[in-house]
Amino acid sequence: MLRYQRMVFAVIARIAGTGAHVEDLAQETFLRALRAFPTFDIGGPARVSTWLITIAARLALNARQHSARKVVVLPLADATNVRDAATPETERARRELGQAIVRAAADLSDDQRAAFVLAEFHGLSLAEIADVLETQEATVKTRLFRARAHLRERLVDFEKDKGDER
Questions:
Q1: What is the CA radius of gyration of the chain?
Q2: Which of 21, 53, 126, 137 is the most exposed place for a label (fewest CB within 10 A)?
Q3: Structural domain spans, the chain
């Protein structure tokens, strides 16, 4: 649990949003894993990390779909907190870009967001993502393509808006 808790929390928060429910879902993830561990084939093709991500992602997607409340989605990239020896202007620009990424990602469908998070932040292959989301690899490819196109489009609009301000 100690080894994988950060990963499980990250998957859940990026898919289901932040809040107290993240801890509940993480706890449920580890309880389900504990119950199913005797049947897990350690010598098989699945890695423990992929197996846990599968459990966490499915729980997070179910929670998001069954939730009637508005969720605050954890930023996909913590671009707003990047620090270096930059000027105040570049810090402001980075913060604005990070906020634009968060807004663009919030508009993704649950399926697109889950595929994007699992591919870009957890390095899962198309086959692994297809297993996690219980769908075809071609469907995962389409979801990733659409998610990336959406983010690219929204960030181009952000750049145009920034150009107009200058």
A1: 18
A2: 137
A3: 1-74, 77-166
